[in-house]
Design a protein that fits this description.
Order of helices and strands: HEHEHEHEHHEEEEHHEEEH
Bound molecules: uridine-diphosphate-N-acetylgalactosamine
Shape: globular
Strand content: 15-25%
Helix content: 25-40%
Number of strands: 11
């Protein structure tokens, strides 16, 4: 309608002017070769961004999977998200679980403007399948539900704890996150899938970054395309009796290299490992992967 074409004025906000010759961060890469911003503390003003996103009345979905024993991680994730994730915005938590009956009486209350939604999904025997099938389930729910309820999706692992601000600065058409173990590594050291028979194959002389499987997102349409592509790539590999070395993460890396480079990239501030301590360039550690005993929790 005509109303949509009218300019809407932003609220007056006072802030220091950006200095062209004095970048806030000189110690880290702030932009990719295709001009996607890499999000580090110091490079953005959250007041400006909040104002822009509030003006659009943006709704955000956070997806997590809590299948089988991983249900034990859910409470901490949601409770810490309540303190740090998209505070002041409209948030739907989408929890995919095989144990809906066990979790509906979960003792978690979420703030106003926020909803906790449980989606019942099948479980798989192999943990690799649980992890990989997330692509199919996020794809299906994007079409059936998310497209009507939210504007952006943020898709993360469940064995995590928020401990500092994560806000609308991460939102973009499609975003990926630098894997905390690889952002200073060479291409040669990236654990991409190296067998040419796999749909996830990336040769040694190619690659931009090594992205984490456990943190991506974007507009619903873009997340649909991403998850649909990765799911089909996995099915093709399955039919050919091959499975990429790091499962969904390998297919995601292939997608971000060859099909759609991220329009925004999250620094390892957004995904860090508890056991790795800290580092001078990390001004914040916003989301921490919890220490777990993989053999125990996956079986
Ligand atoms: C890495 C990636 C993960 C995925 C995986 C593939 C990060 C931080 N993590 O994590 O996203 O790409 O490698 O190898 O980048 N889950 C269940 N129940 C299960 C098993 C898994 O709910 O029985 C879900 C749960 O949400 C979990 C996720 O699948 O967080 C990934 O599994 P993981 O955390 O065991 O995988 P991990 O730590 O190797």
């Amino acid at each position: 309608s005509q109303d949509n074409l009218k300019a809407v004025q932003l609220k007056r906000i006072l802030y220091p002017k950006a200095e062209t010759l004095k970048p806030q961060r000189t110690d880290v890469l702030s932009v990719s070769p295709w001009l996607a911003p890499i999000v580090w503390e110091g490079n953005f003003n959250i007041d400006i961004l909040n104002e822009q996103f509030h003006q659009r009345d943006v709704r955000i979905g956070l997806t997590v999977f809590a299948i089988k024993k991983y249900i034990r991680f859910l409470k901490t994730l949601i409770e810490t998200a309540e303190k740090f994730f998209m505070v002041g915005h409209q948030v739907n938590y989408y929890v995919f679980t095989d144990l809906v009956r066990n979790v509906t009486n979960f003792n978690i209350t979420v703030g106003t403007g926020r909803r906790l939604v449980f989606l019942e999904v099948p479980s798989y025997k192999r943990w690799q399948d649980v992890s990989m099938r997330r692509m199919q389930m996020i794809r299906d729910a994007s079409q059936q539900r998310f497209a009507y309820e939210v504007d952006y999706l943020v898709c993360i692992d469940v064995d995590m704890r928020f401990q500092d601000h994560v806000g609308v600065e991460i939102l973009s058409d499609v975003f990926g996150t630098l894997h905390p173990a690889f952002f200073v590594k060479t291409r040669h050291q990236f654990t991409y899938e190296r067998r040419p028979q796999s749909q996830a194959y990336i040769p040694e002389d190619e690659g931009d970054f090594y992205y984490a499987g456990g943190y991506f997102g974007g507009k619903i349409e873009e997340v649909y395309k991403l998850t649909n592509h990765c799911h089909h790539a996995m099915l093709t590999d399955k039919a050919n009796n091959i499975e990429a070395v790091w499962h969904d993460e390998s297919y995601l890396n292939n997608y971000f290299l060859y099909y759609k480079k991220p329009t925004k990239i999250l620094s390892p501030e957004y995904l860090w490992n508890e056991r790795d301590g800290t580092a001078h360039y990390l001004r914040k550690r916003r989301l921490i992967a919890l220490h777990k005993n993989p053999d125990e929790v996956r079986n």
